[in-house]
Amino acid sequence: MHKTDKMILFITIIIVAFSVLTLYSSCHQKGEFVLQSIFYRQIIWIIIGLFLSFVFYMIDYRKLWDFAWLLYVFTILALIVVLIFGRTRLGAQRWLELGGFNFQPSEFGKLAIILVLARYFSQKSFEELKIFKNRFSLARGFVFPLFVTGVLALLVLIQPDLGTAIIYFFIFMSLIFFVGVRIRYIIIFICSGLIASPFLWSLLRGYQRDRLLVFLNPSRDPLGAGYTIIQSKIAVGSGGLLGKGWLSGTQNQLNFLPERHTDFIFSTIGEEWGFFGSVVLIILFYVLVKRILMLSSLAHDPFAKNLCLCIASLIFIQSFINIAMTIGFMPVVGLPLPFISYGGSSLVSFLLLIGIVLNISKSL
Amino acid sequence: MRYRQTLIVFKVLFITLILGLFYRQVIQGEYFYNQSRRNVIRVISLEAARGRILDRNGVVLADTIPSFDVSIIPQEVRNKPLLFERLSKILGMPFEEIRQIYQRRYLNPFVPVIISEKLDKNEIIALEENKLQLPGVVVDIRPLRFYPFGKATSHVLGHLGQIDSYRITKLKPYGYEMSDLVGYGGVEEYYDLVLRGENGGEQVEVDNRGQRVRTVGYKPPQSGQDIQITLDMRIQKIADDVMHGTRGAVVILDPYSGDVIALSSYPSYDPNDFVKGNDSVIRSLLQDRRSPLFNRAIAGQYPPGSVFKIVTTTSALEKDASLTNKTFVCNGSMQIGNRTYNCSSTHGAENLRDAVIHSCNVYFYSLGMLIGPDILHKYASVLGLSRRTGIDLNYEAAGFIPSVNWKKVIMFQSWSKGDTANMAIGQGEVLVTPLQLARMVSVFANGGELVHPHLIKAIGNKNFIGKNKSVTIKKDVLKNIDSYLYGVVNNPEGTAYTARVEGLRIYGKTGTAQVHGKAAHGWLVGYVGRDKPKYAFCVFLENVGSSHVACTAAERILEEMSKQGLI
């Protein structure tokens, strides 16, 4: 217990507390607590998440090695089930209903990808892998893990959930960068992605194309696809240096912001807490990510190293993309803000990952 | 393992993000703050009640009465077609019409959309009874202008109407807005700023669907002030009854103060038609050849005919008091230059007094030529002709008095003796308004004061008194003319003998003004009282052929006033 990284625990709790405050405000409208059920449900999710986090904190992370492929196969099955039986919400088939709670297998897909890739790249010792790489590097060091990631990403993409698919690929990329796969492969991968983008464009759904076009020019369709991003920019921008104060954001309280408790929750933060509040939150995320990376460097076990790296980059990239899209610097892809957005699956999986990280820190 | 590189990438990207936030929130912050305010604040204007207009005794001449409108508050309606259906049954309007009106007038969810205006009592009752089946339907009370005396007061009061583009450009600096109602003509226009009050407004905060959340600011509408005018509605009514069906004007003044007691112009119109927006009636008024919208009493310019002999007489006596005894012989006509100038009759030898009483043209041709046009022009001016009286009504005309210089400089003609002769009997280029003549004759009634005719008596608690100006006419000249004017009405040979009324001392001068190609206008201008003059009056009738008709009309007015004890 004494070795547990209390800093990570502390920051996580602060961010979760911040989430509770923000969500409380988001669930108010015109001074009335109108979305009470959403708020209380999230409190329940937090409790569940903290409990699971504690469970994973108690389980030795090495045991996860054994379950990695099992979880991967399970996730694939769950994603197929979702495609067949899942509940459609907001135009996407992402949810499975289990005992009154809806959950998204794609969120747990992140966990599966992390475990599988972390295990795969720690099978051999680092030196061995390097030799490996020089001989059949492309196939075993790049193509196979890309395939593993691609299968899951494709299933998620069909739902359609572009954001999560991007996250999967990003986890893959940050890990191969981290373990030392040649930069040239990464560059080739990015370039081939760019070359393939016209073909990908034709694969995109209508609304996804709209979002991209709207990102380039929000006034294209100010009341349709562009509405959310325009209102979100107004919300964040109008917060100014110090914000309008908790429960006082007009954009938020008067219902101008759609999805203000889920993907666009940062617009509430920006509006009510201003630039200072936003920067504090970003610094919290940065410190958390940095701390987990440090843990990665300290660990002796390659599996632990890879796990920590993947978790750190997941938290980083998801918070980065979410904030950037909320303030209009990236196209809208449906991604929740880690620990803060409403949504049980996302919150629980992030808390669970923190549990794993804490377990690793304990074992050092 | 690339720890440091990974961390650097993360750090750089996070710093970029913070810079992005700085740009959005600090650099663009004010812009977006204003955007967010514009998102949530709407302003609704609240109409101020217009001030009333009262006559000198407190009788209400223009009032604001409640008008009942039925409107729909969009944000409270769930099922629009059903509601339209029900409303269409109650109001007897076709479903399609209601739907179209609703679409045309819809502004935003919390501003009621007026479906039908000026409901009658049965409709209001039906709406109230079915209130529960009509969610979102409200019956609103709106102030509506009402003129209880209709036609009788239209030219004094004017009417209220939607502001037009000419007026909005003129009145914008005073806070008028495009949809405002403003006065057109009369007291309504002249005192519009006093009457209108100040519209209030409500600032409301709205949500994303434009629904009202709460009131942020409220400025109560400031009611307009009541105005009391000098009109005596009882007398106005009498004048109106007599004038009904004619073309002409009646002006009655208080000769001491300049208070306008009655001011009637016919044909007239009902100002309530304008308030109701009765389009077909308004169009026919605008197209009517008899110009019912034209205020003859202040804007009509007519030759005064023999009434102008008052000016000629004054000029003569001012020049030489001994002219009272001057005798000319009237042979029924007179040769001046190569033209023959006629008289109404053959009056024989007569002095000034008789000439006034007979209204002898030949006498005045001679007298005019004796004294010359310059002095005629001077005294016309002293008696207030050829310039506006300054009454508090818009569109007053100035009239015209010719002069030697005018003819030379403007017309490039030389002044002839015939011009002098014509001017002396109020023909030729001489033009006056009925109001000017009533004011002119007041000078003789009050003993030498040129009054400032006005309608305003009081605004709120503040009273107004007209300012008089002493004229440079000798007392005995005034006295002489006063006696001549008495003779015109009371001497059996007087031209206004038909106008006399039992128990009243009436003074007057008739005029039959020749108009080219049409029947002559009839005038009777004078003053009346029991012991001393109480009212100055001018009765004018267009194209009636003779002053006799004007005398009859004046007699009927004065008789009725006397009967009602108003003199």
Characterise this structure:
- The complex is a heterodimer of chains A (364) and B (567).
- Chain A is mostly helical and 364 residues long.
- Chain A has one domain (6-363).
- Chain A is built from 13 helices and five strands.
- In chain A, the strands form two sheets. Chain A has a three-stranded antiparallel β-sheet.
- In chain A, strand 4 and strand 5 form a beta hairpin.
- The mean pLDDT of chain A is 83.
- In chain B, the strands form seven sheets. In chain B, strands 2, 3, 4, 5, 10, 18 and 19 form a seven-stranded mixed β-sheet that branches. In chain B, strands 12-11-23-22-21 form a five-stranded antiparallel β-sheet, sandwiched between helices.
- The longest helix of chain B is centred in the first third of the chain and has 25 residues, at 3-27.
- The N and C termini of chain B lie far apart (118 Å).
- Chain B folds into two domains: 47-229, Penicillin-binding protein 2a (Domain 2) (Alpha-Beta Complex), CATH 3.90.1310; 233-563, Beta-lactamase (3-Layer(aba) Sandwich).
- Chain B has 567 residues and is of the alpha+beta class.
